[in-house]
Each structure stands twice: as C-alpha cells, then as structure tokens.
Amino acid sequence: MLVVGCSTSEIIGQRIGTAGTDEVAEMVFRQLRELQGKIGVQLAFQCCEHLNRAIVVERETAEQKQLDEVTVIPVRNAGGAMAAYAYKNLEDAVVVEFIKAEAGIDIGDTLIGMQMKHVAVPVRVKQKSIGHAHVTLAKTRPKLIGGARAVYEQTKENESC
Hints:
The protein is an alpha+beta fold and 161 residues long. It contains four helices and nine strands, in the order βααββαβαβββββ. It has a single domain (2-158), classed as Rossmann fold, CATH 3.40.50. Strands 1, 2, 3, 4, 5, 6, 7, 8 and 9 form a nine-stranded mixed sheet that branches. The termini are far apart.
C-alpha cells in the first residue's frame, strides 16, 4: 500500500491548507493512477489534520486489509482537496482511521509518518519538488531488534556457537 499525503496549496506556492484546488488534485490523482496501473500498488490518500489525518481507500482495499471504516466525507475545507478528490474518484471509496503502508509519498510536508509501518526510511530521488511543494518519499523495512549478540546478516561465521 502506498500512502499519499498531498497539499495542493503547497504545489501552487501557497501555505498548506489555504488554497486547495480540484485541478491540481486531479493532475496528481491521474499520475498516481497511472503509477498504480504500472506497479499494481494499492493507493491510500491521507486527509488533513481536521479529519485527524484519516485515510481514503477503495472499499476492496479496506476489506482486504481489514481496516475499520469511519463515517466522514472529506471535503476541501475538512480533509483537503486531494483526499476529497480521491474520495469522489476512487472506486467505492471509504475512509478509515489508520493504515500501515509499506511506502509513501509526502507532497508538501503533510506528515504521513503516522500511516507508515515501522521502520520508515527515506528514498532519495532526483525530483525534490512538485510545483512549489517539497516532496519526500519513504519505504519501510522490518525492525532490527536485539542487542550486542544480534545478527542481521546470515553468514557461515554466525551460524554456530
């Protein structure tokens, strides 16, 4: 699952949450759907802080991942233009409170970390912005747990006592 946090306001050079537009949301949505078609990822769109950063997904995704639906309809002024656009244009969209995505795209510093699996690590890319918005990509990896004797790569030397 790929979580997308997107401030359309930031893309057009305005402060987050002040100038969201459907036109920008449509452009971003169209590109993400194209990516989805190429790699088969499930898309999840983060709402703004006014909806506690809830997530818009297709009902099929919510059912597959056993996510609990919440009752709210994202709109531009409560949810954000991107989440509102996704809600209207995904197939049978629902809103869920939490997810644990394997990857994420944060467009405009929307703080997607709470929707990512542990441990999130940055993905370095050449494109650092979309319009005026700062872009951060992340992926996740399993936690490294243990202590002084913990081993993270299997070799012949660490297979025996």
